[in-house]
Design a protein that fits this description.
TIM Barrel; mainly alpha; two-stranded parallel sheet; single chain; about 50% helix; globular
Length: about 190
């Protein structure tokens, strides 16, 4: 995201009306590999492919704000991997993480990961560091964290239906999962 785009985004969030209509999209892996003509697996496994496909998007649509900009990700695997979830990869489809909580009674039993050492988190951080210079040369910076929230992460660790049922049947125990995930996002 350029500084100009960042300023425009902040002004819009603060209620200012821009002079011309603003378009913005989430830039993420469900659509970029197919649009760019590369396999999903290559998009995730090659830092250069990741960078070039993100660059292609930004150069093709220069007036569009892509959030969060160069999004370093591994689909919805990054945070679940840090908690120990098994990762399932596919050449042309999105990867997914196996659930690690099979029953609401297990909520609150997660081992808190270290974002600097666990799962795919260190690879996300390193990818952004590795490509910081080329991004800056294009006038782009990483302006905010690239992470999902506790509800999203909990739904991948437990399963969406199981999590929602847990909130209905045992809200106190289910809430413990959020209490364990939140500090990881703050670190």
């Amino acid at each position: 995201m350029t500084n100009e785009q960042w300023d425009l985004l902040l002004k819009t969030i603060n209620g200012e009306t821009p002079q011309k209509p603003v378009t913005g999209f989430i830039i993420d892996s469900p659509w970029i590999p197919g649009w760019a003509g590369v396999s999903t697996l290559n998009f995730y496994s090659s830092e250069e492919t990741w960078f070039q496909t993100n660059k292609k998007v930004i150069e093709t649509f220069p007036d569009t704000i892509f959030l969060p900009g160069f999004w370093s990700e591994f689909g919805m695997l990054t945070e679940p991997s840090a908690f120990g979830a098994k990762l399932i990869w596919n050449e042309f489809n999105l990867p997914h993480a196996d659930k690690i909580i099979s029953d609401v009674s297990q909520a609150g039993t997660l081992v808190n990961p270290n974002p600097k050492t666990d799962g795919l988190l260190p690879l996300i951080i390193q990818r952004l560091l590795n490509y910081q210079k080329p991004m800056l040369e294009m006038g782009h910076e990483t302006k905010f964290a690239i992470a999902r929230g506790p509800l999203n992460i909990a739904s991948f660790l437990m399963g969406t239906s199981e999590l929602m049922m847990g909130f209905m049947m045992d809200p106190e125990t289910s809430h413990q999962t959020f209490e364990q995930i939140h500090p990881v996002l703050s670190s």
